[in-house]
Amino acid sequence: MDQSRYIARHVVNLPKSGIRDFFDIVAKMKDAISLGVGEPDFDTPWHIREAGIYALEKGKTHYTSNLGLIELRRAINKYVEQNFNVSYVPENEVIITVGVSEGLDLACRALINPGDKVMYHQPCYVSYSPSITLAHGIPVPVPTFAKDGFALTVEALRAAWSPGCKILMVNLPCNPTGGTCDRAQIEAIAKFAVEKDLIVLSDEIYSELTFEGVHTSIASIPGLKERTIFLHGFSKAFSMTGWRIGYACGPATLIEAMMKVHQYSMLCASIIAQEAAIEALVRGEDAMKKMRDQYHRRRDFIVRRFNEIGLKCHLPRGSFYAFPDISQTGLGEKDFALGLLQAEKVAIVPGAAFGENGRGFCRACFATSYEQLIEASNRIERYVQSLTAKNW
Amino acid sequence: MKPIIKLLLEGGSLNTVQMAQVLNLSEAEVNRQLDTLKKDGVLLGLRPVLNLADEDSGVVRAVIEVRITPERGGGFNRLAERISKFDEVESCYLMSGGYDLLVFVNGASLQKVAAFVSEKLSTLEGVLSTATHFMLRSYKEHGFLLGGKVEETERLKVAP
What we know:
The complex is a heterodimer. Chain A is of the alpha/beta class. Chain A is built from 13 helices and 12 strands. Chain A has helices spanning 9-12, 18-28, 46-57, 70-84, 99-111, 128-134, 154-160, 183-195, 252-265, 271-283, 285-309, 333-344, 370-391, and strands spanning 33-34, 94-97, 117-122, 138-143, 165-171, 199-203, 228-233, 246-249, 321-322, 346-347, 349-350, 362-365. In chain A, strand 5, helix 8 and strand 6 (199-203) form a beta-alpha-beta unit. The longest helix of chain A has 25 residues, at 285-309. In chain A, 51% of the residues are buried. By secondary structure, chain B is of the alpha+beta class. Chain B has 2 domains: 3-39, no CATH class; 60-136, Lrp/AsnC effector binding domain/regulation of amino acid metabolism (RAM) domain (Alpha-Beta Plaits). Chain B has 5 helices and 6 strands, in the order αααβαββαβββ. Chain B has helices at residues 3-10, 16-23, 27-39, 77-84, 110-121, and strands at 60-68, 89-94, 101-107, 127-134, 140-141, 144-145. In chain B, strand 2 and strand 3 form a beta hairpin. Chains A and B meet through helix 2, helix 11 and helix 13 of A and helix 1 and helix 2 of B.
């Protein structure tokens, strides 16, 4: 029996994640230094873990409201108000999700009719295009470029726009490029969204890890709140990736629509994670700032080293990713990454895993110890030198 | 805070070559800055943090609460500095609350620590009383947990 003929067409056509391919190769290799991860190297701060344990001890083992614990939604509103300059009603404008990934999926499924076009900038997080496809939408990638520090520009948006575009997805600061936009650029994007009557899905998961300037949320631009779904979570800022906890804020009508999908699929996010998330918001700021400071110094180091080595690398203004241009070596990003892994046992991720516009680049995560970063950079240097020697 | 101090505090056991790489300085400049910190009395020394629970370290540690009489002109300082100079004293702090000085003492045996307290410390002029607590077990030293083996948390090698 050929079971594959039962699989839905749009799932058959989904490409396998480029990261997955690479993961299989790295997993077999012992003692490789990995700059290939997409998460903090710190464990969740103990006081947050302890709050999770306490929740279990108290018997917090039941379902919560579909929207999530009201105490958490209140804490989220306070946090978002203080840090993002926009305010939501905890009772009906906030929903707790299983990570931002679920929030994004909910928004896509709640808003997209078959054939609707969804714009998103690329290179981008691996799930963007598949989330649109799974909701029967048409992905419309908008390129970002190293010369702009991978900021999203209105010129690129205009060039990519066509009638039928309904949604714009943005992720600033961006995984994998670390690119972000300053306030003037955000205002220009906001104006474009209003002009073209787009709903904005704004994934701001790396916002706390902004190293230069102040992070501006597009939801805070006057007139944008009514057409924006603000997506955020705890994974990166509070080192809580494995807890799978995030949230979406937006106009009550849209949150209600997302809640419908959520209640019939996920029902609610884990109550243990929700309890721990309250602790993170109420008392987690100091630990978060300490981690950010460390990422900041590690970023300065690794970006400087890439440039010294001869791999041109823009300064990522946010996130914990460096995205060096490896095209000068004469190799494609996949061959470069594979060669580096085989010759020097350092794992980085080929940029094409994040979309066509990632070709010629590789992503290196600097959320790891100085010792590892120093050793990795020395090995990369040796590898690049060996390539240059061959080319001569 | 100076970058080199931040690095010393968070950098684990980086050697000067590695520190130079991280700070984008020459190794000579790193050494110069470290020397300046030493000269200025900021960097007093670098010591290993050891877990000697399984070893026969032969060290007995005690914490002593000391009440002393402050002196006109010098307050608590003269006597506190005098107490600090004993080799047995590892650390000494002026405290608020029910006693004045908190003194951490190391000795080769219980008897030696007891002898230090009864013969040296409590007989000093100005020392009113002492209360000695012997340490039974250590769970955390200078930010390092001592409870058994350090568990390596597993991270996926490649993740989106």
